[in-house]
Write a structure and sequence with these properties.
By secondary structure, the protein is of the alpha+beta class. The chain contains 11 helices and 21 strands. The chain has helices spanning about 5-15, 20-30, 55-65, 75-80, 85-90, 120-125, 145-155, 175-190, 205-210, 215-230, 380-385, and strands spanning about 40-45, 95-100, 105-110, 130-135, 160-165, 200, 245-250, 255-265, 265-270, 275, 285-295, 295-300, 300, 305-310, 325, 335-345, 360-365, 370-375, 395-405, 410-415, 420-430. The strands form 4 sheets. Strands 2-3-1-4-5-6 form a 6-stranded mixed beta sheet, sandwiched between helices. The chain has a 6-stranded antiparallel barrel with strand order 7-8-14-11-10-15. It is flat, with a radius of gyration of 22 Å. About 45% of the residues are buried. The structure holds guanosine-5'-triphosphate and magnesium ion. Magnesium ion (MG) binds next to helix 3. It comes from Elasticomyces elasticus. GO terms for molecular function: GTP binding; GTPase activity; translation elongation factor activity. This protein promotes the GTP-dependent binding of aminoacyl-tRNA to the A-site of ribosomes during protein biosynthesis.
């Protein structure tokens, strides 16, 4: 099987059988298709509470853009995860869907809303430049509306567009006004521009079913217009050394191991020497012999791309999610750092009780997750007093990791325990 076919195959397992996808037809005939950079590229996604309509809205967007020749229509079942994927558990990636507007080329992630899948949401959201938060008019904002907003903020999403969905199911106009007002307040409380954020009221289901265009298809157009104009084109860090955090790994019989993920910065040309950093004491040296972006062969991979890199001479089992691909000598893995951390309150979805020094949660950095131990800085007042950390506290602590991870001062991370985010932090100084 060709590299292209396998990548396609893998992403099909993640998102959809796409028999009508022109790219898949071409690839199955084994033509090399070059990825054209004719429009600026942006990564976005749907976030929001379970059942509020994220997947339905995603399907509606592809349907509408397909009518304009800008997408392949993916119905609900093709986007929502297949049962076997659910069985694969929490290591799966979220589905990447591709469409265009007049202005841009989008890769869209439909984040699963259920709390059990938030681990995926964290890495999925990490590749978002902007987001569409979906809130059902019938429910208003719910706990995951808030958690996803917080995560989005954390992973660097600067602007969000709101889609108030299921407007067809609400009779009361005042209810709609209330939902809108509360969303503006919530956005502001998380540091977004609540007063100016576009809020579109509509129904994804009506758009899919071709009913009530005034709240259906018209609102999908308005939504995409808002996304095009409100969410700024991110500045890609193309002049920095290449770095891609590995999200998924697979092997192609006869060709080798492919690591895929979103390129954080830099540009990598085919046949470059690279290192896989993290999880091990010393980096693994290898060479990138082929590159694919959006299932099309490329000579180079650049910041913002979702790419698959074919790695020479490394075994699949030696490549792990959470490692990074970087240029030789440019990145280092570390096991200990000083952090400034905010501990979430119970209202924010965090712990109900405090914790002591020697706390052992799971740490999430880029696509990595690793067992960690948090202690008070040696010699600090808190250490002497054996102080407790309470929800709502801002604390400085020392964090040690079970295995080394590539990291830099100034990077953000999440702390999770028992399936929920309990703290968010900033790496203030690398110790070891
Ligand atoms: N009445 C009405 N129902 C809708 C609308 N959009 C979605 N639904 C229904 O709401 C339910 C949930 O929709 P999904 O699209 O699966 O919601 P989701 O946010 O993706 O859910 P999770 O992925 O499980 O978090 C489905 O039964 C949809 O048919 C709408 O505009 N109006
Ligand atoms: Mg869904």
């Amino acid at each position: 099987m060709s590299f292209a076919r396998t990548l396609l195959h893998t992403s099909r397992a993640l998102c959809a059988p796409r028999t009508t996808n022109p790219a898949s037809r071409i690839l199955s005939r084994n033509y090399a298709v070059a990825f054209e950079r004719s429009k600026p590229h942006m990564n976005i996604g749907t976030i929001g509470h379970v059942d509020h309509g994220k997947t339905t809205l995603t399907a509606a967007i592809t349907k509408r853009q397909a009518e304009k020749g800008f997408a392949t229509y993916l119905d609900y079942g093709s986007i929502d995860k297949a049962p076997e994927e659910r069985k694969r558990g929490i290591t799966i990636s979220t589905a990447h869907i591709e469409y265009q507007t007049e202005a841009r080329h989008y890769a869209h992630v439909d984040c699963p809303g259920h709390a059990d899948y938030i681990k995926n949401m964290i890495t999925g959201a990490a590749s978002m430049d902007g987001a569409i938060i979906v809130v059902a008019a019938s429910d208003g904002q719910m706990p995951q509306t808030r958690e996803h907003l917080l995560l989005a903020r954390q992973v660097g999403v600067k602007r969000i567009v709101v889609f108030v969905n299921k407007v067809d199911a609400v009779e009361d106009k005042e209810m709609l006004e209330l939902v809108e007002m509360e969303m503006r307040e919530l956005l502001s409380s998380y540091g977004f521009e609540g007063d100016d954020t576009p809020i579109i009221l509509g129904s994804a289901l009506c758009a899919i079913e071709g009913r009530q265009p005034e709240i259906g298809v018209t609102k999908i157009d308005e939504l995409l217009e808002a996304v095009d104009t409100w969410i700024p084109q991110p500045e890609r860090q193309n002049d920095k050394p290449f770095l891609m955090s590995i999200e998924d790994v697979f092997s192609i019989p006869g060709r080798g191991t492919v690591a895929s993920g979103r390129v954080e910065r830099g540009v990598l040309k085919k046949d470059s020497e690279v290192e896989l950093v993290g999880k091990n004491k010393s980096p693994i040296k290898t060479k990138v012999t082929d590159i694919e972006t959006f299932k099309k062969s490329c000579d180079e991979s650049r910041a913002g791309d979702n790419s698959g890199l074919l790695l020479r001479g490394v075994k699949r089992e030696d490549v792990l999610r959470g490692m990074i691909v970087s240029l030789p000598g440019k990145s280092k893995a570390h096991t200990k750092f000083l952090t400034s951390m905010y501990v979430l309150t119970k209202e924010e979805g965090g712990r109900h009780t405090g914790f002591h020094t020697n706390y052992k949660p799971q740490l999430f950095i880029r696509t990595a997750d690793e067992a960690a131990t948090l202690v008070w800085p040696p010699g600090s007042e808190q250490e002497k007093d054996d102080a407790m950390v309470m929800p709502g506290d801002n604390v400085e602590m020392v964090c040690s990791l079970n295995k080394p991870l590539a990291m830099e001062q100034g990077m953000r991370f999440n702390v999770r325990e028992g399936g929920r985010t309990v703290a968010t932090g900033l790496i203030t100084r690398i110790v070891e």
